[in-house]
Fold each of these.
Amino acid sequence: MPLGTIDRTPPPFFKQGPSALSKLVFFGALALFLMVADARLNLSQPLRAAAATALYPVQWLLMQPVNLARSASAYFGTVSAAQQTENQARQKLALQALRANQVEHLTLENERLRKLLELREQLAVASRAAEVLYDAADPYSRKVIVDQGQLQGVEAGSPVVDEAGVLGQVTRVYPLVSEVTLLIDREQAIPVLNTRTGARSVAFGDPASHGGALELRFMPANADVVAGDILTTSGVDGVYPPGLPVARVVKIERRADSAFARIHAEPVARAGGTRHVMILKPTSGLIPAPPVDDKAAAGRRKGHP
């Protein structure tokens, strides 16, 4: 056989494509490009919404055994626990009946004072009940998923409360579910008011606390704050209605080498065990718009006919 007729190409088994380093560089650059594009343009938001909608029946089906187990556990609860709950409810009912008589008198007096001073009426905030389905998958954040979404009229930024106080805020809305970021998340902040002194401040999620707490930052070292002070929403941000309970001050650290004090607060809402919550409508749409300066408006009209 002539030597020229022999096929000198290697068999397919020994053929190699691009090198491993080339693949690593290509896919690394592609991943970086996709992350930057998603952060700037939110390209993955429709995909997330479609995936959340498609996975909702599966999530609902997987949650049924858990709900069944919870129902069975609640059904087979002991009688003594039920009697204890009934006794506590009776005591609270008696206490609330006493307070109701006082509140009725104070409400009437408040209405008369508002009419006398011609103050604006309190804002009526719409609300919607929701149930916590499960915690978010991200282990570095404190978020939960509730069973109300865009189809039910939930808006991004809506406050979320439980029976004790403010729990968090809706940060992402899908067609059937919504993502709620809790107040104890390190990236969450809420304007608060000290009910004892009337001082305003901002409470941030404390990432250093493993149990979940809040921290008042940038407060002067000589600020009039004591342990036990109650913090409520101030209502100046246009999101949270004023007067909602937020936290209770538990610890104050004043250092001689710092001009600011470290103030730690404990949220009144049950961040780790709440199942039923209320989603409030943001107050930004109910607050009148700020007045427009006539001179500035006239100057803009002259510059842009």
Amino acid sequence: MDMLSDVAAFIRAGRPTSLRVSWRAPWGVSFRASPGSAGFQVVLRGSCWFVPKEGEPVPLSVGDLVFLPHGDSFGLTDDPAGPLVESDCGAHFGLFASAGFGGTGAETVILSCCYQLAPDRTHPILGALPGVIHLPSTLGSHQELRAAVELLAGEIDNPRPGTDTVVSSLLDMLQLYVLRAYFETQDEPCTLSGWAAALADPAIGRALDAIHLDPARRWTVESLGAHAGLSRAGFARRFTGLVGQPPLAYLTWWRLMSAARMLRDSDASVAEVAERVGYGSEFAFGNAFKREFGVAPGRFRRQVAVA
């Protein structure tokens, strides 16, 4: 996997959910904060206002998408001056579902999607995102994103054999398209910083992809620098400045995060997991894992199995 695909798959936990809601004026709802989750709101028909936790209401029209990567509280309404009532939409969520609320006036249709984040798999790229990402529907941009939304809405409107798998896959695609669109719409490369700059930097991007493609390889700063096309010292400075930690520190962290995923999701033995993520001995792997997670790999597996 390339780095962004790997991260998108890594941070999720459980099955995603979605709900197509028909709101009729007058209406106004507030949604409580949901730590440990991320979600999308996409306007399919009509228009409304997005009310962030902080700041002024934002007008939304057909095709506009709002992504909340940290599960912050927010509101949606047909009138920013009107009251907001706490939503009870949560009871209607499923892998794909539809519902209607509000009065008898003009209709606004919104696609709401949500997925849980794995608490032991938080990647720093997610922490670097703002609380609210608004991607307006602009003619000629984000065509893949709009296509995924249209396909998702169609499947929810008209469930058929295989819809369960299609909807789950489209929600995964939507998340990835949103992350890609956000990073692509940032400022010019010369003014970027942090993970946005790391993903926009071809050399650092190649090194990150190499780490995620083959974390078990015996990478050194020199070999990663050569893969990136930079000198050892120049690569180390650039990587550390953009990613926020030295190359081998990030490599170690990613190996252990990958190991935790294997312990959670596979039947591979601890020794097999250690080998797959690049540790020469189960003992060395166990010590490194315990430093990161506070428990030995075997105990970690038993804990997540009963969680």
Amino acid sequence: MHLLQSRTDEAIVWLEKARSALPGIPFHRSRLASAYALRGEIERAADEFAEARRLAVDGRFSSIAHLRAVPGPWWGAPKTRALFEATYFADLRKAGMPEE
């Protein structure tokens, strides 16, 4: 939630804790990549994004289109979808995720 509200510093603290507790979960890595990109730390964002791609055996992090096709919180209400577009997806693009 912190990430969607652009409360980047708080999001990073919690996402780093989640990554440390469960290092094999790709979603923690992708959300951390997004948060780092939002803060302008593109190299760190790219590193986390690369690790999320490596960990996700189903290829969901190969592109924005693939990720959108996977059921997730971005399928929610229009306001929630708009927040994901403005933060999560926009920042994953900055971290190097292609559209297709």
